[in-house]
UniProtKB/TrEMBL annotation:
This is Protein arginine N-methyltransferase domain-containing protein. InterPro entries: Arg_MeTrfase (IPR025799), PRMT_dom (IPR055135), SAM-dependent_MTases_sf (IPR029063). GO terms for cellular component: nucleus. It comes from the Eukaryota. The lineage of its organism: Eukaryota, Viridiplantae, Prasinodermophyta, Prasinodermophyceae, Prasinodermales. It comes from Prasinoderma coloniale. GO terms for molecular function: histone methyltransferase activity; protein-arginine N-methyltransferase activity.
Amino acid sequence: MASDGAAPNAGKPSEGDFHSYFCTYEFIYHQKQMIEDQVRTGAYHAAIMRNKHLFKDKVVLDIGAGTGILSIFAAKAGARKVYAVEATAMAERAKLIIAANGLDGQIEVVRTMVEQLELEEKADVIISEWMGYMLLREAMLDSVVKGRDKWLKEGGVMFPSHANVYLAPIRWGTHERQSDQHDDAIEDWYGFVDETKALYDLDLNCLNEQFEEETKEYFLQTSHWCELEKHHMVGPATKINSLDLRSCSVDDIQELRSEFELSVTAPGTDHIQGMVGWFDVDFDGSDQNPVEEKITLTTGPGPRAEQTHWGQMAFLLHPPLPVSSGGKIKGSARIYKRGDNMRLLGMDSSLKVEKPDGSAGEARKVKWNVD
C-alpha cells in the first residue's frame, strides 16, 4: 500500500475511551449493521456518485473510515488520493477490503485518531459518517471538526455539510409498559427488603430512596430507541437545531439549546405521552464547490423500509402531559454531553401547554438520559 503521503502514526485512543467507545467498531458485525442500512449507505453512495465533479482528481480525507466503504465510493468517483483514517483494528480489515477491490493504489489507510493525524497535503473533501442518536451522541463530531480545521483546504467540501435536529409530539403504547415496569420494580424491591429482613434480620430500608431514584432514572428518565411511524405523531415535526458543518466550532457542539413550539393537531387528542427526536443531514457542498444534486439522509419516523439503524429517540412523559387537539406546547431544550461519560447525552426540557383557547395549561420541567 502506498505510504508517500502520510507520516507514520501511533495515535491510539486512551484505554478508557477504547473500552467505552472505540472497541465496538472493531467488530465486523457492527460494521455490517451500518453497511446493510441501505438508507444510510445509499445516501452516502448517491451523494458521492451523483456529484463526481467534487471528487474527480481530488484529495479526500475519510474520518472514522471503518471498513473503508466511503473511501471506496470516493475513489470510484475519481479521487486522486483518499486517506482513510481509522483508530481501531478495523483499519487492517479496511486494507484487505480496499486491496480486494483493486483500489489500494488510490486509498491509503492510516491507523490513528484524527487528532494525531499527520499528512503531507490538505484535503479538498472530507467525508465522514459521525452521527449518533440525537445527532451528537458518541461525540465523534468533535474529532471531525478538529480534522476539518487542520486538514480541509479553503473552500473545501464537507460531506455531509449540514445537520438538523427535530422533535414531534407522540402517542405510543410503550409508555404504559415503561410505567408498569417501573411500578413492578419498586414493588419487587420492597418485597425483597421485607424478605431479607425476615430471613437474615438484615435491614435494607436505608437504600429505599436511592433505589427509587435509580429505578425512576432507568425506566422513566431515559430515552428509548424506537422505530415510529407517522401515525404515532399527533402533530407535525419542529426543527429545533441546525448546524453548518462547514463552519461550526467545537464549542458550538458541546451543547445544543433551543426554544420551540409543538402543535397538537391529531383529532381527538387529549394528552401526549412524550416527544420523538431525530436528525437529518444534507450533502450540499460548499459555496465555492456546490453539488449538482443535493442529497438528504433523514432518520425520522416513517415506513419500516425507510428506517435507519439510528431509529429515533422517544422522550416519554410520566405522567402524560394533558394537551388537546388545537393546543400547543411551548418549550425549551438543552442537549448536552453528560459528565459521567462525554460520549453519552442528556436532555433537559421545560414545557408549557397552551390550550386551544389560548389559556395556560400545565407547565413541567423534565430531563432524560440518552444512553
